[in-house]
Design a protein that fits this description.
The structure holds two protein chains of two kinds.
Chain A (H helix, E strand, L loop, with lengths): L2 E14 L2 E14 L3 E5 L6 H8 L8 E10 L2 E2 L5 H7 L4 E4 L13 H12 L4 H14 L5 H4 L9 H13 L5 E5 L7 H18 L2 E6 L2 H5 L4 E6 L2 E7 H6 L4 H8 L42 H5 L5 E4 L2 E3 L3 E2 L4 E2 L3
Parallel strand pairs in A: 3-8, 3-9, 6-7, 7-8
Antiparallel strand pairs in A: 1-2, 1-4, 4-5, 9-10, 10-12, 11-12, 13-14
Helix pairs in contact in A: 3-4, 3-6, 4-6, 6-7
Chain B lengths: L1 H29 L14 H10 L6 H10 L5 E2 L9 E2 L21 H36 L4 H15 L2 H18 L19 H35 L2 H8 L4 H29 L3 H6 L5 H10 L3 H29 L7
Antiparallel strand pairs in B: 1-2
Helix pairs in contact in B: 1-12, 4-5, 4-7, 4-9, 4-12, 5-7, 6-7, 7-9, 8-9, 9-12, 11-12
The chains are: A alpha/beta, B mainly alpha.
Chain lengths: ~325, ~350
């Protein structure tokens, strides 16, 4: 399969009053054309920041990409001109944002907001853009699109707005769709609709999808491959079935344990598992593994050395000194 | 929408009534129009008595107000001031469009006095307002997009100087530099007082030359405040999610700013301009005085100081109506610019 996006050792820092926050600490992964990559992790773990870096939309200052390469179709996005980047954004990489309530411009019509990217990137006339916008709205399942293009965001419900957001990202038929927690602000039934919609559109349009979420339940249905992030590091990367079947990092294990299950064998009334403690603040330099203070499997080495991401199984990577299946320290 | 406008206009009627009562009572009680009527000489007591009867100033305040409001053609007035009311009144009252006659400029219609001056003031104020809006939008947006850069700091510094400087100071300094010193240095200099040079006559070129310094002074003061406002609005808007969305669509920066950010950032400016515009009719008292510009501001202050109730009330009521109308227009423009706002 052809690799469309490859990130190598990406590092992003934020210069804040409280010090330098290491938001992303040298992560590497790749996305194959037409496949879906899921990125999970809790708030502040660097998942959104790494995606905004791909789009070069990190507000600078305070943010700064301090290292690494982002190879999109072979060219390093961190080195291309801003002008070139404008042709890639929206045209070749589409992005859907978390909160559909605030990510649409309140004073412009839906038609204008979807159509303008096509007018800029594809050189469409107003009429062509409008025609295509109506098709797109049909595609994302909005009724009466020829009427609704004249309406404003406040006349749409949250789920409908996110469909508009998706239509907007798909307007120029990008090769990659980055969805940054697109369902977090929506209620559960709408979440399911958006996930179904994305799957359908991906099958129809054949684009790669990067789906960022902190909801392991949503992503299981969607992703081909999964990345788990913690404190700016990738702690585990695996095929989606492998990850849920055989999690190899204590953090992933804890995340999966804290999922509520309908078929819980633990019986009713039992408390949901939680992960005690907080993630590190990103400012303090930690010697060892960032998850060590919250980890059940912690050994002495964890506090001294940060484990590298290593292949633990067939195409399954984890960054841990301990083999969680046996509970024994790996001999590295 | 039509119903909304009609309702707003109906609501304005009691408001204007209350405003007029308050202003009238204040005016009647703030001074004595008779005291300066004798010119340099002190008005003699018997003249004072006769004048106050002739002008109806001996009447109780409610009656004076009534005459001002609905006229006195339904009753007899004491026109010769001999103590008996024998002449039929002729005033129609403002409700029938008669604002009365000036006391200071005896017999001259208030409407004529105001209409003489209003164009002069508008000549000064309309260009000022247009320049101020254009300038503050340009400076505010530029400054916001380069927040904390050297240019931004310089603009910030200059606006604070402009904002905190009293208008008379900048007016006098500009006169001193562009009028007095430029003349002394043999450079082309600008005229400092009046609307035209009497030796040349009231030509367009003359008036434009005379407009430059007052407009400059007014612009510096007003634009300083406006541009700070635009800057802060713009800063708020460009950190909004929908601006990030617009960038993520790959729109060029110019389109993101003009197409997406500016409309949102300029919305609150409409309110501010809507509040300021009607006050422009009142003229700039200080600026007009310093530059000897025959506008509404000077008219107002001259007649106020001599307690010329009909003229002052005429000006104040005109401004009151303008305030109410411009608020209505502001709301309508707001609804047109911001689709989230609808009136019913």
């Amino acid at each position: 399969m052809e690799t469309i996006l490859k990130i190598e050792n990406l590092e992003v820092k934020f210069h804040t009053l409280g010090g330098v926050v290491n938001a992303v600490n040298g992560i590497s992964y790749s996305v194959e054309a037409g496949k879906t990559l899921g990125i999970v992790g809790e708030s502040g773990c660097g998942k959104s920041v790494s995606m905004l870096s791909v789009m070069r939309l990190i507000p600078n200052p305070p943010g700064e990409i301090t290292g690494g390469r982002i190879l999109f179709k072979g060219q390093n996005l961190l080195e291309v001109s801003e002008e070139k980047m404008e042709h890639i954004r929206g045209a070749e990489i589409g992005m859907v944002f978390q909160d559909p309530m605030t990510s649409l411009n309140p004073v412009l019509t839906i038609g204008r907001q979807i159509g303008e990217a096509m007018m800029v990137h594809n050189g469409f006339s107003r009429e062509q853009a409008e025609k295509r916008t109506i098709e797109l709205l049909n595609l994302v399942g909005i009724a009466n699109p020829d009427q609704r293009i004249k309406e404003y965001p406040h006349q749409f419900s949250g789920g409908m707005r996110q469909r508009v957001g998706i239509a907007m990202a798909l307007a120029c038929e990008p090769d990659i769709l980055i969805a940054d927690e697109p369902t977090t602000a929506l209620d559960v039934t709408i979440q399911a609709q958006i996930v179904e919609l994305t799957k359908r559109l991906q099958a129809e349009l054949g684009m790669a999808v990067i789906w960022i979420t902190h909801d392991l339940g949503v992503i299981a249905d969607l992703a081909d491959r999964m990345i788990v992030m913690y404190a700016g590091y990738i702690v585990e990367e695996a095929d989606v079935f492998d990850l849920y079947e055989k999690p190899s990092h204590p953090y992933t294990l804890s995340l999966l344990r804290s999922l509520p299950r309908v078929d819980s064998s633990r019986g009713g009334g039992e408390r949901l598992a939680t992960i005690p403690g907080f993630p590190p603040d990103g400012v303090t330099i930690m010697l060892g593994c960032p998850f060590a203070p919250r980890c059940n499997f912690v050994v002495d080495r964890c506090r001294l050395e940060n484990p590298p991401l290593i292949m633990v199984n067939n195409d399954h990577k984890a960054a841990c000194w301990v083999d969680v299946n046996t509970g024994k320290e790996r001999s590295l | 929408m039509t119903r909304y406008i009609i309702r707003r206009i109906l609501q304005a009627i009691p408001l204007l009534f209350i405003i007029s009562v308050l202003l009238f009572v204040l005016m009647i009680n703030t001074g004595d129009p008779l005291s300066t009527m004798g010119g340099r000489r002190v008005t003699r007591p018997e003249d004072r008595e006769r004048l106050s009867r002739q002008l109806g100033l001996d009447q109780p305040i409610y009656k004076q107000y009534l005459f001002w409001l609905i006229g006195n053609d339904w009753t007899k007035v004491d026109l010769d001031g001999d103590g008996t009311a024998e002449t039929q009144g002729t005033r129609k009252g403002i409700l029938r469009g008669d604002f009365g006659t000036s006391m200071v400029q005896r017999g001259k219609e208030v409407t004529d006095i105001i209409l003489d001056r209003l164009p002069n003031t508008l000549l000064l104020m309309i260009p000022t307002e247009i320049i101020v809006i254009a300038l503050s939008l340009a400076v505010g947006v530029y400054s916001a997009l380069r927040q904390y850069s050297a240019t931004d700091h310089i603009i910030t510094g200059l606006s604070f100087i402009g904002y905190s400087m009293p208008i008379f100071f900048i007016a006098l300094v500009s006169m001193y530099i562009f009028g007095v010193n430029f003349k002394a240095w043999g450079l082309p200099y600008l005229p400092t007082v009046g609307m035209f040079d009497p030796k040349v006559g009231k030509t367009t070129g003359q008036v434009i030359q005379h407009m430059i310094l007052p407009i400059f002074s007014l612009t510096v003061i007003t634009a300083a405040g406006y541009s700070r406002f635009v800057r802060s609005q713009m800063l708020e808007v460009i950190s909004e999610d929908y601006i990030r969305t617009a960038r993520a669509k790959g729109l060029p920066n110019r389109m993101v700013i003009t197409g997406h950010a500016l409309k949102n950032a300029a919305l609150p400016l409409v309110t501010i301009v809507g509040l300021d515009v009607p006050l422009l009719l009142g003229g700039a008292v200080v600026t007009e005085s310093i530059f000897a510009w025959p506008g509404m501001g000077r008219l107002f202050i001259d007649h106020l100081s001599r307690s010329d109730t009909p003229v002052v009330m005429g000006i104040l009521m005109m401004i009151s109506v303008a305030v109410i109308l411009s608020q209505l227009i502001t709301d309508i423009i707001y609804a047109w610019l911001d689709p989230r706002i609808r009136y019913s």
